[in-house]
Specification:
Helix Hairpins; 2 domains; four-stranded mixed sheet
Amino acid sequence: MAKTKKTTPEETLRALYNLQVIDSKIDKMREVRGELPLEVQGLEDELAGLESRVEKIKAEIESFDSSIADKKNTIAEAKEAIKKYAEQQNKVRNNREYDSLNKEVEYQDLEMQLAEKRIKEYKFKIESKKETLDEAKALHDEKKNALELKKKELKEIVSETEKEEEILLQESEKAGKSVEERYLRTYKRIRGAAKNGLAVVPVERGASGGSFIKIPPQIQLDIAARKRIIIDEHSGRILVDAELATEQAEKINKKINRLLK
């Protein structure tokens, strides 16, 4: 059974910095897109909300229309009842029957008045809902046009960098495979917690990249010796010496440029 080749600390540091250089290029590329993907998502969410709102208003208008139809039926039935009671009044034999029928007529008349009042209320509500519907439709069209423009803008930016990003993602995956699993997990954890995505940084002017806190001289010597993996106690990042960083950055840049030709 073949033995697994043991990786030296220096080889690990070079592999980690290679990965960082590639991932930083991907980060920079995605920064160019800025907030566009989020803006597109936001507009899509707004459109979905407006579409739901439009459908809800339409359903409410339909409900009022249905209620108006019901009230019109009520009026028609009341008119028929009044007509029937009027005919019966002509055939009554005493005042008590006449008064009883007269009360029925009055009741039906009140039913008609109430139904007509409700119809007016529903019509008023329909007009109000139609105004709201027109406003929602206009806003929907406005957002839809804005979304189409944002999508077009995003597509243009993506198409310009699509090939390069694809190559970088492939190279990032390859670079990650050359790093021991435990160090790769550490790299991803640090990178995920850093706002700028930097997990591996060179020592610059006696401090870790992007920091102003000086690193003790002995630690700087240990970093330059490349005998072990050193993590900055202040920033929590993996440290490499400037010479190694320059060498690996040049190698990666040459490789990427060659692949893009």
